[in-house]
Amino acid sequence: MTMTETRPAHLTDHAPAYGGSGMDELVAWVNEIAELTRPDRIHWVSGSKAEHDALLAGMVEQGTLIRLDDAKRPNSFLARSDAGDVARLESRTFICSERREDAGPTNNWKAPAEMRAALEPLFAGSMRGRTMYVVPFSMGKVGGPISQIGVQVTDSPYAVASIELMTRVGDEVVELIAEGAQWVRTVHSVGRPLADGEDDVAWPSNDEKYISHFPDTLEVWSFGSGYGGNAILAKKCFALRIASVLGRDQGWMAEHMLLIRVIDPAGHAFHVAAAFPSACGKTNLAMLRPTLPGWKVETLGDDIVWIRPGDDGRLYAINPEAGFFGVAPGTGESTNVTAVETLWGNVIFTNVALTDDGDVWWEGLTDEAPEHLIDWRGDDWTPDAGRPAAHPNSRFTVAASQAPSISPDWEEAVPLDAILFGGRRATNVPLVVEARDWEHGVFLGATISSERTAAAEGTVGELRRDPFAMMPFCGYNMADYFGHWVEMGAKADRLPRIFQVNWFRKGDDGRFLWPGFGENSRVIAWIADRLRGDAGVVDSPIGGLPEPGALDLTGIEIPDDDIRELFDIDPAGWLAEAELTEEFFDTFGDRVPAALREQLAALRRRLETAGS
Ligand code: GTP
Ligand code: SPV
Ligand code: MN
């Protein structure tokens, strides 16, 4: 079959015409999806600015977007989602590997054939009355050594505009596909076909939702949601769940991490990646403005990192994304001034509040709320309303290049010097701990727990396991993933050092013991000094702690008692935690690597000695 025969020309506008068997495959796949979903039009997205602007203008006209005041927030827009479509849905997320044990006990599993049978009637005709967009994208710079490519077919112009900010979209990707490069097939429908002449709603979606992954065939099929990670399939679905499987098979890693370059007062640079669960401070640390004089942090990425061993025995990292899809609430002048500056214009906001003068607001942007707002649902709001004006998982979508802190070379791979694991822990976990070695560090990552946030469904505040901050994002059996981490340690000979941090420890009175945000630079500085070898450390049963005085606290007032509490290690509390870790490991049967079982036994021995 030739290209022209397989392409339904009457539906298609701009379609890049490269030769090659890869191109025929792509076109055949697009046609197959169109035949199933029955769109009125097919638009091949070129990624041009004019096209992006036209998409946005179309959504304003249609009611999906509100254009913000051009003087206050140039070229920026507000979307209000359906109230039932506000976050990731872990309960509707499926890993459809051939074998159930390859998904493991922490993922929902369905056999591929069974899932296809469930999806087929949902996708059949699901794009009627709509345009089907074909969006070719690259994760990492196009053609880069650690980059990967994919195509998303979607009936959501909001998803298209978001993907254009979050990834690199363009014909060069189609050219790579035509030449035969491996690519990931992602299909997305909001699941709201339009009858003839029926008016669209502002936020089309479907009560029935599926976010399904087929790791064996490198496919993602997402139905019913238009929100964030459910709809921007390049992000969590591809760059974490599918990529983690590629990494397992090909000897690299896909991680839920931020990436920064830390520069000390003498000009030494260190590259640090940090895995914190959703809405636990990655964007904040990625944009850290140090309060410690002379220190500087450059942003490389805020959510996803891909890591590969280099020829020199070090681990190299990239941020595969091109934008930030960041949590709005809690982002303000005092907490993340860099983000506030990044958001000057060219932003798509979702589910934040609208001010009377056509700008946006959310809890934490300013200390005092405006006297009147339109809240995220479109209702009048005043400070005494008794409910937040912005949804707790409201977000901004903006190009990474707009951050004033972005590294000049942020698209290049950097050698990793340190990896941090963290979470929200009101108790037990100290401000910072250094792993004894790689395997102990992997144990720290594997045993992270964190209090739930609004980034997914569930009860906010409830403590849950979130190993490596990857619980919702690991595309295969998590015990095998632990094993992959252990093995990666053998693949490199200048491994990054591993630390655990916790900005969220609370006193008995419920207040945070650590001021956090810019002051986290003090912890980063201690870590950087450790990497250079000139900061003091003392051993403890759970790892290395800063020697008294080694953490630079000049210029801030923190009561000595609070500092003591921040580093307090209660052997009984930790032994109880070890008990839970064993229960957690046992849910994987004998798949947990022996190295981690040994780490747990050694931790218990050290705690028992300390406690006696
Ligand atoms: P995802 O995009 O969901 O993966 O999350 P993220 O980890 O990038 O989340 P983000 O950085 O946006 O964190 C959001 C929340 O954490 C906000 O409410 C912040 O105010 C809060 N936060 C970040 N850093 C600190 C800190 O050092 N101390 C305290 N107390 N809160 C913090
Ligand atoms: C997260 O939940 O970790 C996010 C937001 O980064 S979303 O892309 O919606 O998953
Ligand atoms: Mn995330």
What is the CATH-assigned architecture of the largest domain? Alpha-Beta Complex
- The total beta strand count reads 32
Describe the main β-sheet briefly.
9 strands, mixed
Strand content: 15-25%
| Unique bound compounds | guanosine-5'-triphosphate, sulfopyruvate, manganese (II) ion
Residue-averaged pLDDT, rounded? 95
The number of helical runs is 17
Q: What's the CATH topology name of the largest domain?
A: Phosphoenolpyruvate Carboxykinase, domain 3
Distance between the termini: 77 Å
User: Judging from the principal axes of the Cα atoms, what is the shape?
Assistant: globular
The helix/strand class is alpha+beta
Q: How many discrete domains? A: 3
Characterization of the model:
This protein has 612 residues and is α+β, with helices and mostly antiparallel strands. It folds into three domains: 224 residues, Phosphoenolpyruvate Carboxykinase, domain 1 (3-Layer(aba) Sandwich); 272 residues, Phosphoenolpyruvate Carboxykinase, domain 3; 80 residues, Beta Complex (Phosphoenolpyruvate Carboxykinase, domain 2), CATH 2.170.8. 30% of the residues lie in helices and 22% in strands. The protein is built from 17 helices and 32 strands. The strands form seven sheets. Strands 1, 4, 5, 6, 7, 8, 9, 10 and 11 form a nine-stranded mixed β-sheet that branches. Strand 10 and strand 11 form a beta hairpin. It is globular. 52% of the residues are buried. It binds guanosine-5'-triphosphate, sulfopyruvate and manganese (II) ion (MN). Guanosine-5'-triphosphate binds next to helix 10 and strand 18.
